[in-house]
Amino acid sequence: MGLIAGIEAGGTKFVAALASPDGRLLDRTRIATRAPAETFAELAEWFAATARRHGPIAAFGVASFGPLDLDPASPTHGSFTTTPKPGWSGANWHEALGQFGVPVAIDTDVNGAAMGEWMAGAGRGRRTVAYTTVGTGIGTGVVTDGRPLFGASHYEMGHVRPARPALDDGWHGNCPFHGDCLEGLVSGPAIIARWGTDLSQASEAQVMLVADYLAEFAASLALMHAPDVMIFGGGVFNTPGLLEALREKTRAKLAGYAAFYDRPLDDVIVAPALGDGAGITGAIALGRSILSNPSPPAKSR
Amino acid sequence: MGLIAGIEAGGTKFVAALASPDGRLLDRTRIATRAPAETFAELAEWFAATARRHGPIAAFGVASFGPLDLDPASPTHGSFTTTPKPGWSGANWHEALGQFGVPVAIDTDVNGAAMGEWMAGAGRGRRTVAYTTVGTGIGTGVVTDGRPLFGASHYEMGHVRPARPALDDGWHGNCPFHGDCLEGLVSGPAIIARWGTDLSQASEAQVMLVADYLAEFAASLALMHAPDVMIFGGGVFNTPGLLEALREKTRAKLAGYAAFYDRPLDDVIVAPALGDGAGITGAIALGRSILSNPSPPAKSR
Protein backbone atom coordinates (compact mmCIF):
# COMPACT_ATOMS: atom_id res chain seq x y z
CA MET A 1 0.00 0.00 0.00
CA GLY A 2 1.38 3.41 -0.96
CA LEU A 3 1.75 6.56 1.07
CA ILE A 4 -0.85 9.19 1.87
CA ALA A 5 -0.38 12.81 0.86
CA GLY A 6 -2.19 15.53 2.77
CA ILE A 7 -2.67 19.20 1.92
CA GLU A 8 -4.13 21.84 4.19
CA ALA A 9 -4.75 24.81 1.93
CA GLY A 10 -5.31 28.20 3.53
CA GLY A 11 -5.48 31.68 2.13
CA THR A 12 -1.98 32.61 3.31
CA LYS A 13 -0.18 29.26 3.47
CA PHE A 14 -0.45 25.62 2.47
CA VAL A 15 0.79 22.80 4.68
CA ALA A 16 1.78 19.68 2.77
CA ALA A 17 2.63 16.36 4.36
CA LEU A 18 3.39 12.78 3.46
CA ALA A 19 2.27 10.00 5.79
CA SER A 20 2.55 6.24 6.03
CA PRO A 21 -0.58 4.18 5.27
CA ASP A 22 -1.45 4.18 8.99
CA GLY A 23 -1.26 7.98 9.14
CA ARG A 24 2.20 8.49 10.69
CA LEU A 25 3.89 11.68 9.42
CA LEU A 26 7.00 11.11 7.29
CA ASP A 27 7.68 14.62 6.09
CA ARG A 28 5.98 18.02 5.91
CA THR A 29 6.49 21.50 4.54
CA ARG A 30 4.89 24.92 4.22
CA ILE A 31 4.26 26.81 1.03
CA ALA A 32 3.17 30.44 0.79
CA THR A 33 -0.16 30.88 -1.04
CA ARG A 34 0.41 32.90 -4.22
CA ALA A 35 -1.31 32.56 -7.60
CA PRO A 36 -2.60 29.05 -8.23
CA ALA A 37 -0.14 28.17 -11.01
CA GLU A 38 2.93 28.96 -8.88
CA THR A 39 1.55 27.49 -5.68
CA PHE A 40 0.38 24.28 -7.32
CA ALA A 41 3.72 23.89 -9.13
CA GLU A 42 5.73 24.21 -5.92
CA LEU A 43 3.36 21.79 -4.20
CA ALA A 44 3.66 19.16 -6.94
CA GLU A 45 7.45 19.48 -7.01
CA TRP A 46 7.68 18.97 -3.26
CA PHE A 47 5.45 15.87 -3.35
CA ALA A 48 7.36 14.41 -6.31
CA ALA A 49 10.70 14.91 -4.53
CA THR A 50 9.41 13.60 -1.21
CA ALA A 51 7.87 10.54 -2.87
CA ARG A 52 11.24 9.75 -4.44
CA ARG A 53 12.70 9.57 -0.93
CA HIS A 54 9.88 7.78 0.90
CA GLY A 55 7.90 5.83 -1.69
CA PRO A 56 4.98 6.21 -4.06
CA ILE A 57 1.84 8.17 -3.18
CA ALA A 58 -1.42 6.18 -3.19
CA ALA A 59 -3.88 9.01 -2.55
CA PHE A 60 -4.23 12.70 -1.79
CA GLY A 61 -6.45 14.30 0.84
CA VAL A 62 -7.08 18.02 0.54
CA ALA A 63 -8.67 20.28 3.17
CA SER A 64 -9.00 23.58 1.40
CA PHE A 65 -10.23 27.13 1.75
CA GLY A 66 -13.14 27.89 -0.55
CA PRO A 67 -15.81 28.21 -1.63
CA LEU A 68 -15.38 24.98 -3.56
CA ASP A 69 -17.50 23.01 -6.00
CA LEU A 70 -17.98 19.72 -4.13
CA ASP A 71 -21.04 18.44 -6.01
CA PRO A 72 -20.04 14.88 -6.95
CA ALA A 73 -22.04 15.14 -10.17
CA SER A 74 -20.44 18.43 -11.28
CA PRO A 75 -17.99 18.48 -14.18
CA THR A 76 -16.06 21.16 -12.28
CA HIS A 77 -15.87 19.18 -9.01
CA GLY A 78 -12.86 20.24 -6.96
CA SER A 79 -12.64 23.77 -8.31
CA PHE A 80 -12.78 27.07 -6.47
CA THR A 81 -16.03 28.92 -7.22
CA THR A 82 -16.55 32.60 -6.40
CA THR A 83 -13.63 33.24 -4.07
CA PRO A 84 -12.61 36.89 -3.76
CA LYS A 85 -8.97 35.70 -3.71
CA PRO A 86 -7.46 36.99 -6.98
CA GLY A 87 -6.85 34.30 -9.59
CA TRP A 88 -8.28 31.41 -7.62
CA SER A 89 -11.81 31.24 -9.08
CA GLY A 90 -11.81 28.23 -11.39
CA ALA A 91 -8.54 26.74 -10.10
CA ASN A 92 -9.10 23.00 -9.77
CA TRP A 93 -7.58 20.52 -7.33
CA HIS A 94 -8.03 17.53 -9.62
CA GLU A 95 -6.04 19.33 -12.33
CA ALA A 96 -3.42 20.49 -9.86
CA LEU A 97 -2.71 16.92 -8.73
CA GLY A 98 -3.66 15.04 -11.91
CA GLN A 99 -0.02 14.28 -12.77
CA PHE A 100 0.18 11.82 -9.85
CA GLY A 101 -2.63 9.68 -11.29
CA VAL A 102 -4.05 8.71 -7.91
CA PRO A 103 -7.39 9.38 -6.18
CA VAL A 104 -7.84 12.86 -4.71
CA ALA A 105 -10.28 13.50 -1.85
CA ILE A 106 -11.23 17.16 -1.50
CA ASP A 107 -13.15 18.84 1.27
CA THR A 108 -13.42 22.15 3.07
CA ASP A 109 -10.96 23.36 5.67
CA VAL A 110 -13.57 22.95 8.43
CA ASN A 111 -14.57 19.43 7.38
CA GLY A 112 -10.86 18.65 7.30
CA ALA A 113 -10.41 20.00 10.82
CA ALA A 114 -13.45 18.03 11.99
CA MET A 115 -11.90 14.89 10.47
CA GLY A 116 -8.58 15.61 12.17
CA GLU A 117 -10.17 16.19 15.57
CA TRP A 118 -12.27 13.04 15.10
CA MET A 119 -9.20 10.97 14.21
CA ALA A 120 -6.79 12.21 16.83
CA GLY A 121 -8.18 15.09 18.87
CA ALA A 122 -11.20 16.29 20.83
CA GLY A 123 -13.57 14.21 18.74
CA ARG A 124 -11.85 10.89 19.25
CA GLY A 125 -14.31 8.11 20.03
CA ARG A 126 -17.32 10.29 19.25
CA ARG A 127 -19.81 9.51 16.52
CA THR A 128 -20.82 12.97 15.27
CA VAL A 129 -18.22 15.72 15.52
CA ALA A 130 -18.94 19.37 14.66
CA TYR A 131 -15.95 21.70 14.37
CA THR A 132 -16.63 25.44 14.31
CA THR A 133 -14.02 28.11 13.79
CA VAL A 134 -14.83 31.68 14.83
CA GLY A 135 -12.14 33.96 13.51
CA THR A 136 -11.83 36.09 10.39
CA GLY A 137 -14.78 34.06 9.11
CA ILE A 138 -17.05 31.49 10.68
CA GLY A 139 -17.53 27.97 9.39
CA THR A 140 -18.58 24.57 10.69
CA GLY A 141 -17.64 21.10 9.48
CA VAL A 142 -19.44 17.94 10.54
CA VAL A 143 -18.16 14.36 10.49
CA THR A 144 -20.41 11.38 11.27
CA ASP A 145 -18.98 7.86 11.56
CA GLY A 146 -15.80 9.17 9.93
CA ARG A 147 -17.62 10.63 6.91
CA PRO A 148 -17.54 14.38 6.33
CA LEU A 149 -21.07 15.60 5.60
CA PHE A 150 -22.14 17.83 2.75
CA GLY A 151 -25.18 18.25 0.54
CA ALA A 152 -25.67 19.97 -2.80
CA SER A 153 -22.65 22.01 -1.72
CA HIS A 154 -20.58 22.31 1.42
CA TYR A 155 -22.24 23.83 4.46
CA GLU A 156 -22.15 27.58 5.07
CA MET A 157 -23.18 27.67 8.71
CA GLY A 158 -21.42 30.96 9.48
CA HIS A 159 -24.20 32.75 7.62
CA VAL A 160 -27.09 31.44 9.72
CA ARG A 161 -28.99 34.30 11.37
CA PRO A 162 -29.27 33.75 15.11
CA ALA A 163 -32.35 34.87 16.99
CA ARG A 164 -31.22 37.85 19.03
CA PRO A 165 -31.80 38.54 22.70
CA ALA A 166 -33.13 41.97 21.74
CA LEU A 167 -33.35 43.09 18.14
CA ASP A 168 -32.31 46.59 19.01
CA ASP A 169 -29.10 45.70 20.80
CA GLY A 170 -27.29 48.42 18.93
CA TRP A 171 -25.70 46.72 15.96
CA HIS A 172 -26.90 45.86 12.48
CA GLY A 173 -24.07 43.42 11.76
CA ASN A 174 -21.46 43.78 9.05
CA CYS A 175 -21.95 40.82 6.72
CA PRO A 176 -22.18 42.30 3.22
CA PHE A 177 -24.78 39.67 2.31
CA HIS A 178 -26.91 39.26 5.43
CA GLY A 179 -26.08 41.99 7.93
CA ASP A 180 -26.69 40.28 11.24
CA CYS A 181 -25.92 36.66 10.41
CA LEU A 182 -23.51 34.95 12.79
CA GLU A 183 -20.46 36.08 10.80
CA GLY A 184 -21.80 39.64 10.71
CA LEU A 185 -22.23 39.62 14.48
CA VAL A 186 -19.39 37.67 16.06
CA SER A 187 -16.55 37.09 13.59
CA GLY A 188 -13.31 38.79 14.60
CA PRO A 189 -13.76 41.65 12.10
CA ALA A 190 -17.41 42.15 13.14
CA ILE A 191 -16.42 42.49 16.78
CA ILE A 192 -13.70 45.02 15.92
CA ALA A 193 -16.08 46.94 13.63
CA ARG A 194 -18.63 47.14 16.43
CA TRP A 195 -16.51 47.85 19.49
CA GLY A 196 -13.15 48.95 18.09
CA THR A 197 -11.35 46.18 19.96
CA ASP A 198 -11.03 42.45 19.83
CA LEU A 199 -13.11 40.43 22.28
CA SER A 200 -10.25 39.70 24.66
CA GLN A 201 -10.19 43.46 25.47
CA ALA A 202 -13.98 43.80 25.67
CA SER A 203 -16.21 44.18 28.71
CA GLU A 204 -17.89 41.30 30.50
CA ALA A 205 -21.26 42.40 29.07
CA GLN A 206 -19.85 42.39 25.55
CA VAL A 207 -18.42 38.89 26.00
CA MET A 208 -21.78 37.72 27.32
CA LEU A 209 -23.61 39.17 24.32
CA VAL A 210 -21.26 37.36 21.94
CA ALA A 211 -21.73 34.18 23.98
CA ASP A 212 -25.49 34.62 23.61
CA TYR A 213 -25.35 34.80 19.81
CA LEU A 214 -23.01 31.83 19.70
CA ALA A 215 -25.30 29.88 22.04
CA GLU A 216 -28.25 30.44 19.68
CA PHE A 217 -26.07 28.92 17.00
CA ALA A 218 -24.87 26.03 19.18
CA ALA A 219 -28.47 25.25 20.14
CA SER A 220 -29.45 25.19 16.45
CA LEU A 221 -26.47 22.95 15.73
CA ALA A 222 -27.59 20.58 18.50
CA LEU A 223 -31.16 20.47 17.16
CA MET A 224 -30.17 20.22 13.49
CA HIS A 225 -27.12 17.91 13.64
CA ALA A 226 -27.14 16.44 17.16
CA PRO A 227 -23.33 16.25 17.45
CA ASP A 228 -22.03 14.37 20.46
CA VAL A 229 -19.20 16.88 20.53
CA MET A 230 -19.17 20.52 19.37
CA ILE A 231 -15.63 21.86 19.08
CA PHE A 232 -15.24 25.66 19.00
CA GLY A 233 -11.95 27.23 17.99
CA GLY A 234 -10.58 30.24 16.13
CA GLY A 235 -9.18 33.53 17.37
CA VAL A 236 -12.38 34.77 19.02
CA PHE A 237 -12.25 31.79 21.38
CA ASN A 238 -9.00 33.06 22.87
CA THR A 239 -11.33 35.23 24.99
CA PRO A 240 -11.25 34.04 28.62
CA GLY A 241 -14.63 32.77 29.82
CA LEU A 242 -16.26 32.60 26.40
CA LEU A 243 -16.33 28.80 26.11
CA GLU A 244 -17.70 28.42 29.63
CA ALA A 245 -20.44 31.01 28.98
CA LEU A 246 -21.30 29.24 25.73
CA ARG A 247 -21.83 25.96 27.58
CA GLU A 248 -24.18 27.49 30.13
CA LYS A 249 -26.18 29.54 27.67
CA THR A 250 -26.57 26.69 25.18
CA ARG A 251 -27.95 24.40 27.84
CA ALA A 252 -30.29 27.15 29.07
CA LYS A 253 -31.60 27.84 25.57
CA LEU A 254 -32.33 24.16 24.93
CA ALA A 255 -34.28 24.26 28.19
CA GLY A 256 -34.23 20.53 28.88
CA TYR A 257 -35.88 19.60 25.60
CA ALA A 258 -33.06 17.61 24.01
CA ALA A 259 -32.18 15.02 26.66
CA PHE A 260 -28.61 14.51 25.46
CA TYR A 261 -27.73 18.17 26.11
CA ASP A 262 -29.51 18.56 29.43
CA ARG A 263 -26.43 18.39 31.63
CA PRO A 264 -23.23 20.37 32.14
CA LEU A 265 -21.78 20.49 28.66
CA ASP A 266 -18.10 20.35 29.67
CA ASP A 267 -17.47 17.30 27.51
CA VAL A 268 -19.79 18.39 24.68
CA ILE A 269 -18.79 22.01 23.98
CA VAL A 270 -15.00 21.89 23.97
CA ALA A 271 -11.85 23.53 22.60
CA PRO A 272 -9.90 21.89 19.77
CA ALA A 273 -7.22 19.47 20.96
CA LEU A 274 -4.97 19.62 17.91
CA GLY A 275 -4.65 23.39 17.55
CA ASP A 276 -2.98 24.14 14.22
CA GLY A 277 -2.53 20.44 13.54
CA ALA A 278 -6.19 19.59 12.94
CA GLY A 279 -6.24 20.58 9.29
CA ILE A 280 -3.27 18.53 8.10
CA THR A 281 -4.28 15.55 10.26
CA GLY A 282 -7.73 15.74 8.70
CA ALA A 283 -6.32 16.05 5.19
CA ILE A 284 -4.36 12.84 5.68
CA ALA A 285 -7.47 11.18 7.11
CA LEU A 286 -9.39 12.24 3.98
CA GLY A 287 -6.70 10.70 1.82
CA ARG A 288 -6.81 7.47 3.79
CA SER A 289 -10.60 7.31 3.62
CA ILE A 290 -10.67 7.52 -0.17
CA LEU A 291 -8.70 4.27 -0.33
CA SER A 292 -11.07 2.39 1.93
CA ASN A 293 -14.29 4.06 0.79
CA PRO A 294 -14.02 5.48 -2.73
CA SER A 295 -17.33 7.35 -2.65
CA PRO A 296 -18.18 11.07 -2.41
CA PRO A 297 -16.74 13.32 -1.13
CA ALA A 298 -13.59 11.25 -1.53
CA LYS A 299 -13.55 11.15 -5.29
CA SER A 300 -11.21 10.28 -8.08
CA ARG A 301 -11.35 11.93 -11.51
CA MET B 1 -34.35 -13.36 -0.43
CA GLY B 2 -37.23 -12.87 1.97
CA LEU B 3 -39.86 -10.17 2.16
CA ILE B 4 -39.64 -6.70 3.66
CA ALA B 5 -41.96 -5.61 6.43
CA GLY B 6 -42.67 -1.90 6.92
CA ILE B 7 -44.31 -0.11 9.82
CA GLU B 8 -45.30 3.54 9.91
CA ALA B 9 -46.11 4.21 13.54
CA GLY B 10 -48.11 7.31 14.37
CA GLY B 11 -49.76 8.52 17.54
CA THR B 12 -53.25 7.59 16.36
CA LYS B 13 -52.65 4.77 13.89
CA PHE B 14 -50.02 2.35 12.62
CA VAL B 15 -49.76 1.38 8.97
CA ALA B 16 -48.20 -2.05 8.43
CA ALA B 17 -47.22 -3.45 5.06
CA LEU B 18 -45.44 -6.38 3.53
CA ALA B 19 -43.42 -5.87 0.34
CA SER B 20 -41.43 -7.95 -2.09
CA PRO B 21 -37.60 -7.63 -1.99
CA ASP B 22 -37.80 -4.94 -4.70
CA GLY B 23 -40.29 -2.91 -2.66
CA ARG B 24 -43.57 -3.82 -4.36
CA LEU B 25 -46.50 -3.84 -1.89
CA LEU B 26 -48.06 -7.26 -1.27
CA ASP B 27 -50.43 -6.43 1.58
CA ARG B 28 -51.14 -3.68 4.08
CA THR B 29 -53.31 -2.87 7.05
CA ARG B 30 -54.08 -0.22 9.64
CA ILE B 31 -54.01 -0.66 13.37
CA ALA B 32 -55.30 1.84 15.92
CA THR B 33 -52.61 3.03 18.34
CA ARG B 34 -53.53 1.96 21.88
CA ALA B 35 -51.26 0.83 24.73
CA PRO B 36 -47.98 -0.65 23.46
CA ALA B 37 -48.71 -4.24 24.56
CA GLU B 38 -52.03 -4.43 22.68
CA THR B 39 -50.80 -2.53 19.63
CA PHE B 40 -47.59 -4.53 19.31
CA ALA B 41 -49.51 -7.82 19.75
CA GLU B 42 -51.98 -7.00 16.97
CA LEU B 43 -49.10 -5.88 14.76
CA ALA B 44 -47.11 -9.10 15.30
CA GLU B 45 -50.18 -11.24 14.69
CA TRP B 46 -50.90 -9.49 11.42
CA PHE B 47 -47.31 -9.89 10.20
CA ALA B 48 -47.22 -13.56 11.23
CA ALA B 49 -50.48 -14.27 9.37
CA THR B 50 -49.46 -12.27 6.31
CA ALA B 51 -46.07 -13.98 6.16
CA ARG B 52 -47.81 -17.36 6.19
CA ARG B 53 -49.62 -16.30 3.01
CA HIS B 54 -46.79 -14.51 1.18
CA GLY B 55 -43.52 -15.91 2.51
CA PRO B 56 -40.97 -15.30 5.25
CA ILE B 57 -39.94 -11.81 6.40
CA ALA B 58 -36.25 -10.94 5.99
CA ALA B 59 -36.21 -7.53 7.67
CA PHE B 60 -38.36 -4.86 9.32
CA GLY B 61 -38.22 -1.14 8.67
CA VAL B 62 -39.91 1.11 11.22
CA ALA B 63 -40.67 4.83 10.81
CA SER B 64 -42.01 5.81 14.20
CA PHE B 65 -43.28 8.68 16.27
CA GLY B 66 -40.98 9.51 19.16
CA PRO B 67 -38.90 10.68 20.79
CA LEU B 68 -36.85 7.54 20.33
CA ASP B 69 -33.49 6.33 21.56
CA LEU B 70 -31.55 5.92 18.30
CA ASP B 71 -28.02 5.98 19.72
CA PRO B 72 -26.41 2.90 18.16
CA ALA B 73 -24.32 2.38 21.29
CA SER B 74 -27.25 2.56 23.69
CA PRO B 75 -28.50 -0.59 25.43
CA THR B 76 -32.03 0.82 25.07
CA HIS B 77 -31.73 1.54 21.32
CA GLY B 78 -35.12 1.48 19.66
CA SER B 79 -37.12 2.48 22.71
CA PHE B 80 -39.43 5.45 23.24
CA THR B 81 -37.91 7.97 25.63
CA THR B 82 -39.91 10.75 27.25
CA THR B 83 -43.05 10.71 25.13
CA PRO B 84 -46.10 12.25 26.79
CA LYS B 85 -48.18 9.45 25.23
CA PRO B 86 -49.36 7.33 28.20
CA GLY B 87 -47.63 3.97 28.53
CA TRP B 88 -45.21 4.42 25.64
CA SER B 89 -42.09 5.61 27.49
CA GLY B 90 -39.76 2.62 27.55
CA ALA B 91 -41.65 0.59 24.93
CA ASN B 92 -39.03 -0.91 22.61
CA TRP B 93 -39.25 -1.78 18.93
CA HIS B 94 -36.58 -4.47 19.09
CA GLU B 95 -38.55 -6.26 21.80
CA ALA B 96 -41.83 -5.78 19.94
CA LEU B 97 -40.48 -7.49 16.84
CA GLY B 98 -37.88 -9.78 18.44
CA GLN B 99 -40.01 -12.89 17.86
CA PHE B 100 -39.35 -12.67 14.12
CA GLY B 101 -35.59 -13.00 14.62
CA VAL B 102 -34.69 -10.69 11.72
CA PRO B 103 -32.93 -7.30 11.53
CA VAL B 104 -35.02 -4.28 12.50
CA ALA B 105 -34.19 -0.79 11.17
CA ILE B 106 -35.76 1.97 13.24
CA ASP B 107 -35.95 5.65 12.48
CA THR B 108 -38.15 8.67 13.05
CA ASP B 109 -41.36 9.34 11.15
CA VAL B 110 -39.75 12.30 9.36
CA ASN B 111 -36.60 10.39 8.37
CA GLY B 112 -38.96 7.66 7.14
CA ALA B 113 -40.92 10.16 5.06
CA ALA B 114 -37.67 11.62 3.70
CA MET B 115 -36.59 8.09 2.71
CA GLY B 116 -39.94 7.46 1.05
CA GLU B 117 -39.86 10.71 -0.92
CA TRP B 118 -36.25 9.99 -1.89
CA MET B 119 -37.13 6.48 -3.09
CA ALA B 120 -40.31 7.22 -4.97
CA GLY B 121 -41.46 10.81 -4.60
CA ALA B 122 -40.36 14.43 -4.74
CA GLY B 123 -36.79 13.53 -3.76
CA ARG B 124 -36.21 10.97 -6.49
CA GLY B 125 -32.82 11.41 -8.16
CA ARG B 126 -31.68 13.97 -5.58
CA ARG B 127 -28.68 13.48 -3.34
CA THR B 128 -29.73 15.23 -0.13
CA VAL B 129 -33.44 15.30 0.68
CA ALA B 130 -34.91 17.21 3.63
CA TYR B 131 -38.53 16.51 4.54
CA THR B 132 -40.26 18.91 6.91
CA THR B 133 -43.75 18.47 8.27
CA VAL B 134 -45.53 21.51 9.71
CA GLY B 135 -48.67 20.32 11.45
CA THR B 136 -49.49 19.49 15.06
CA GLY B 137 -45.74 19.42 15.55
CA ILE B 138 -42.80 20.34 13.35
CA GLY B 139 -40.00 17.97 12.42
CA THR B 140 -37.43 17.52 9.67
CA GLY B 141 -35.76 14.37 8.41
CA VAL B 142 -32.71 14.36 6.15
CA VAL B 143 -31.50 11.61 3.83
CA THR B 144 -28.16 11.81 1.99
CA ASP B 145 -27.20 9.18 -0.59
CA GLY B 146 -30.02 7.02 0.72
CA ARG B 147 -28.81 7.19 4.33
CA PRO B 148 -31.04 8.83 6.94
CA LEU B 149 -28.94 11.21 9.02
CA PHE B 150 -28.82 11.43 12.79
CA GLY B 151 -26.28 12.23 15.46
CA ALA B 152 -26.17 11.52 19.18
CA SER B 153 -29.95 11.43 18.82
CA HIS B 154 -32.42 12.13 16.05
CA TYR B 155 -32.77 15.73 14.96
CA GLU B 156 -35.26 18.07 16.63
CA MET B 157 -35.36 20.85 14.08
CA GLY B 158 -38.88 22.01 14.98
CA HIS B 159 -37.42 23.59 18.10
CA VAL B 160 -34.92 25.85 16.38
CA ARG B 161 -35.58 29.51 17.17
CA PRO B 162 -35.90 31.55 13.99
CA ALA B 163 -34.66 35.12 13.89
CA ARG B 164 -37.82 37.25 13.78
CA PRO B 165 -38.62 40.10 11.43
CA ALA B 166 -39.45 42.20 14.47
CA LEU B 167 -39.16 40.86 17.97
CA ASP B 168 -42.29 42.63 19.09
CA ASP B 169 -44.60 41.23 16.44
CA GLY B 170 -47.19 40.52 19.08
CA TRP B 171 -46.70 36.90 20.05
CA HIS B 172 -44.46 35.16 22.55
CA GLY B 173 -44.95 31.69 21.05
CA ASN B 174 -46.55 28.73 22.78
CA CYS B 175 -43.84 26.08 22.99
CA PRO B 176 -43.77 24.99 26.63
CA PHE B 177 -39.98 24.62 26.42
CA HIS B 178 -38.83 27.49 24.23
CA GLY B 179 -41.70 29.93 23.67
CA ASP B 180 -40.94 31.28 20.22
CA CYS B 181 -39.14 28.36 18.59
CA LEU B 182 -40.49 27.36 15.19
CA GLU B 183 -43.02 24.97 16.72
CA GLY B 184 -44.15 27.65 19.14
CA LEU B 185 -44.67 30.10 16.28
CA VAL B 186 -46.02 28.23 13.26
CA SER B 187 -47.25 24.75 14.21
CA GLY B 188 -50.98 24.27 13.66
CA PRO B 189 -51.80 24.65 17.37
CA ALA B 190 -49.56 27.74 17.69
CA ILE B 191 -51.38 29.44 14.82
CA ILE B 192 -54.77 28.66 16.34
CA ALA B 193 -53.62 29.81 19.79
CA ARG B 194 -52.43 33.09 18.29
CA TRP B 195 -55.18 33.97 15.85
CA GLY B 196 -58.08 31.72 16.79
CA THR B 197 -58.19 30.21 13.31
CA ASP B 198 -56.13 27.92 11.17
CA LEU B 199 -53.88 29.51 8.57
CA SER B 200 -56.14 28.75 5.61
CA GLN B 201 -58.67 31.23 7.16
CA ALA B 202 -56.04 33.82 8.06
CA SER B 203 -55.27 37.15 6.43
CA GLU B 204 -52.65 37.65 3.76
CA ALA B 205 -50.44 39.48 6.27
CA GLN B 206 -50.69 36.57 8.69
CA VAL B 207 -49.75 34.07 5.99
CA MET B 208 -46.77 36.23 5.04
CA LEU B 209 -45.59 36.40 8.66
CA VAL B 210 -45.74 32.60 8.93
CA ALA B 211 -43.90 32.34 5.59
CA ASP B 212 -41.24 34.65 7.00
CA TYR B 213 -40.59 32.47 10.05
CA LEU B 214 -40.54 29.38 7.86
CA ALA B 215 -38.14 31.06 5.43
CA GLU B 216 -35.70 31.80 8.27
CA PHE B 217 -35.82 28.09 8.99
CA ALA B 218 -35.47 27.05 5.33
CA ALA B 219 -32.47 29.38 4.95
CA SER B 220 -30.86 27.79 8.02
CA LEU B 221 -31.60 24.36 6.60
CA ALA B 222 -29.95 25.36 3.33
CA LEU B 223 -26.85 26.70 5.12
CA MET B 224 -26.62 23.83 7.62
CA HIS B 225 -27.56 20.80 5.46
CA ALA B 226 -27.46 22.06 1.85
CA PRO B 227 -30.31 19.82 0.64
CA ASP B 228 -30.84 19.75 -3.10
CA VAL B 229 -34.53 19.45 -2.34
CA MET B 230 -36.50 20.72 0.67
CA ILE B 231 -39.95 19.14 0.88
CA PHE B 232 -42.53 20.91 3.05
CA GLY B 233 -45.76 19.15 4.00
CA GLY B 234 -48.20 18.88 6.89
CA GLY B 235 -51.56 20.54 7.50
CA VAL B 236 -50.26 24.11 7.66
CA PHE B 237 -49.06 23.79 4.06
CA ASN B 238 -52.66 23.38 2.90
CA THR B 239 -52.69 27.19 3.02
CA PRO B 240 -52.85 28.61 -0.52
CA GLY B 241 -49.80 30.66 -1.42
CA LEU B 242 -47.67 29.57 1.53
CA LEU B 243 -45.25 27.39 -0.43
CA GLU B 244 -44.76 30.08 -3.10
CA ALA B 245 -44.11 32.75 -0.47
CA LEU B 246 -41.65 30.43 1.25
CA ARG B 247 -39.66 30.05 -1.97
CA GLU B 248 -39.38 33.79 -2.54
CA LYS B 249 -38.55 34.69 1.03
CA THR B 250 -35.96 31.93 1.41
CA ARG B 251 -34.12 33.07 -1.68
CA ALA B 252 -34.30 36.68 -0.51
CA LYS B 253 -32.92 35.84 2.92
CA LEU B 254 -29.97 33.90 1.46
CA ALA B 255 -29.29 37.04 -0.60
CA GLY B 256 -27.24 35.39 -3.29
CA TYR B 257 -24.67 33.98 -0.91
CA ALA B 258 -25.23 30.27 -1.47
CA ALA B 259 -24.94 29.87 -5.25
CA PHE B 260 -27.06 26.73 -5.42
CA TYR B 261 -30.10 28.54 -4.00
CA ASP B 262 -29.75 31.76 -5.96
CA ARG B 263 -32.49 31.09 -8.50
CA PRO B 264 -36.24 30.51 -8.48
CA LEU B 265 -36.63 27.68 -6.01
CA ASP B 266 -39.57 25.95 -7.71
CA ASP B 267 -37.70 22.66 -7.93
CA VAL B 268 -35.94 23.02 -4.57
CA ILE B 269 -38.76 23.97 -2.15
CA VAL B 270 -41.56 21.59 -3.06
CA ALA B 271 -44.63 19.79 -1.77
CA PRO B 272 -44.48 16.07 -0.96
CA ALA B 273 -45.33 13.82 -3.91
CA LEU B 274 -46.43 10.77 -1.94
CA GLY B 275 -48.88 12.41 0.45
CA ASP B 276 -49.85 9.91 3.13
CA GLY B 277 -47.80 7.22 1.42
CA ALA B 278 -44.35 8.63 2.21
CA GLY B 279 -44.11 7.08 5.67
CA ILE B 280 -44.86 3.48 4.73
CA THR B 281 -42.77 3.72 1.54
CA GLY B 282 -39.89 5.00 3.66
CA ALA B 283 -40.36 2.29 6.28
CA ILE B 284 -40.05 -0.36 3.57
CA ALA B 285 -36.97 1.42 2.19
CA LEU B 286 -35.43 1.37 5.69
CA GLY B 287 -36.09 -2.37 5.87
CA ARG B 288 -34.50 -2.91 2.49
CA SER B 289 -31.46 -0.82 3.37
CA ILE B 290 -30.67 -2.85 6.47
CA LEU B 291 -30.19 -5.92 4.28
CA SER B 292 -27.74 -4.21 1.95
CA ASN B 293 -26.04 -1.99 4.54
CA PRO B 294 -26.32 -3.38 8.06
CA SER B 295 -24.93 -0.32 9.80
CA PRO B 296 -26.54 2.38 11.95
CA PRO B 297 -29.31 3.45 11.93
CA ALA B 298 -30.36 0.19 10.34
CA LYS B 299 -29.44 -2.08 13.19
CA SER B 300 -30.08 -5.61 14.32
CA ARG B 301 -30.22 -6.62 17.94
Automatic annotation (TrEMBL), chains A, B:
Catalytically driven reaction(s): D-fructose + ATP = D-fructose 6-phosphate + ADP + H(+)
Top-level taxonomic group: Bacteria
EC number: 2.7.1.4
A molecular function (GO) term: metal ion binding
Key words of the record: Magnesium, Metal-binding, Zinc
Keyword Cell inner membrane: no
Enzyme category, top tier: transferase
Pfam family name, one: ROK
Cofactor(s) listed: Mg(2+)
Protein name: fructokinase
Organism: Aurantiacibacter arachoides
Lineage: Bacteria, Pseudomonadati, Pseudomonadota, Alphaproteobacteria, Sphingomonadales
